Amino acid sequence: MPGRIVTHLLPTGEFDLLPEVERAASLGTFVWQPTGTVQWSLGMIALLGFDPEQPIEAGQFFIRVHEDDRARVTEAFTQMVAGVDVPPVVYRIVLPDGRERQLRGHAIVKRDNEGRLVRVIGTLVDVTAQAAATRELEQTLERLADTQRWAGVGSFAFDLQTGAVEWSDEVRALLGVPPGTPSDDAERFILPEDRPRRGEWLQRIANGETPPPLYVRIVRPDGSVRHVESRGHLTKGPQGPRVVGVAIDVTARVELEEQLRHAAKMEAIGSLAAGVAHDFNNYLTAMGLQLAQVQRRGLDSPAALTPALDAIDRCANLTRQLLSFARRHPTTFKPVELTGVVRRTALLFTGLAGTITVEVVLPDEPIYVEGDDAQLESSLLNILVNAKDAVTDAGHIKVALTLEGEGSEEVARLAVSDDGAGIAAEHLPRIFEPYFTTKELGRGTGLGLAAVYGTVQQHGGTVHVESELGSGATFVLRLPTRDIPSSRYSMAPPSLRAPLPVGAQVLVVEDMEALRRVVARALRSAGATVWEAKHGREALAVLEEQPTVELVLTDVRMPIMGGVELARSLAAGAGAPALVFMTGFADVSDSNDPVMRGVPVLYKPMTEADILRLVGREITARRRRLEA
Q1: How far apart, in whole angstroms, are the C-alpha atoms of residue 346 and residue 352?
Q2: Do 140 and 133 form a contact (C-beta atoms < 8 A)?
Q3: pTM attached to this predicted model
Q4: Which of these, 292, 286, 340, lies nearest to 314 by C-alpha position?
Q5: Measured in whole angstroms, how far is the alpha carbon of residue 335 from the centre of its chain?
Q6: How confident is the model over 24-60, as pLDDT tens digits?
Q7: Domains along the chain?
Q8: Among 627, 628, 528, 536, which residue's Cα sits nearest to residue 579?
Q9: More confident residue, 61 or 402
């Protein structure tokens, strides 16, 4: 313990107000003299929890000091009695009943004219309440900071006279700068085209108006763009007029709104594409059936029609792509000829590539995988469109499908390479993240490659990218293969058409007259008796007059009454005719309507053989049911 401490009470006179002042201010006073004597006021004794009637032993003061603060207080006392001016010290003491009290000690060193130490006069002030209030304020500020951080909300104050600005750490996080970075004018982060709006917004607030929230885009130091919403109001105080407000990171909301707008736009485009594909399928079916009938009747050179039939097949592939784009089909996993998927998608993309050279390398034998052909087509198209955006007008894109591995380790390797600008190394780990894009603002949503990643994962495969800046990029998809599936249909030549049951009676319901007539002609040429109707209501009238009809071959989408409503009307009754749908879409099998379950479907464009096979099968099955 430093020095010899002898304690005495400070003397008080009859009119001395010191005890009352100390009691009112929760403080105590002491005087230390070079002789080692310390005099304490009654307030000092009370603060330290001693009994004024009992003698105070040397060193008892330091015993009262909290053990975690004792070394610091001892050091300050040692310097003080050595004549050093010590700054105020805040420390804790522990009272006899275990309560803690926080004190603030301050002392002044007094010297004589020759500079010799005469005495040290000091005070102790009880700051327990203030310390508790400070802690509570700090905790409140911490909770506020946490809330701002979790909510993505920062606070700011902008001095309208000086232009000085104050930021909370959440604003710094929003701007992408480290905590503690000196506040600066946020305008340097704002995109140039958005800056005038900020100036107008601040001016309106300065004029006493309450403008709507300000929306601007900022560019962080790492180059990423964030959308920020600001709200503020005018305050006037000793520091002058200021705009005080909050800044909110609304990037996720803006991106969601953009997704919704994009989804609505794509839905509209998809509906248009599906409608176009549906109409084309009708025409393709009519043309295909007409040509097949002409070819069957005999020509000097039947092979002369083969190019026309091949052209119809190519058009059918294009309409299938449109329907895939429009998502007018259920998601189903089945054996998929990946070779055909690549060929069709590359054909569609070639029309979009302009002057870009597209090279397609396919194996001699087909490769099959288990999956959803539309999802695979969409994924490949996404990668091809990305490659198109990366190359110049004279660029080159290569699509190569090969087999890797052997036996159970065999996989299909699909690689798409381009000679574009390439991808920076720091971007490669994030390339498949949702919303991440290296394209300029407004050109990419950052969802295409994320969708590719999800599709490949769903198919049990892998996808990765190989790239260097200036050397192009190669996206590699690996998918598990499967055995070649057995054919769904008979591979008999078209000339060997399956005959219809004798006396077959069929009603053809189709709003497109040319298609209706050519389908009816194909059925009649196979020996059936055929009636025609242009919509469901007319079909019901025909059935009313012709109860012997065995099968209704109907389009799904027609004016006045469509195929679904017609099917519902025919559902009742044991003797109801069999039903077969025709459609240019592929959404019938996805219907939850109980009436639709189990109804066979002919997908346009269909061949004459398809029609006769399915119609004959269903009429035969109906006759057997009626005989049972």
Answers
A1: 10
A2: no
A3: 0.47
A4: 340
A5: 31
A6: 667 888 888 888 788 888 888 888 888 877 777 757 8
A7: 6-126 (3.30.450.20), 147-249 (3.30.450.20), 276-329+498-628 (3.40.50.2300), 331-486 (3.30.565.10)
A8: 536
A9: 402
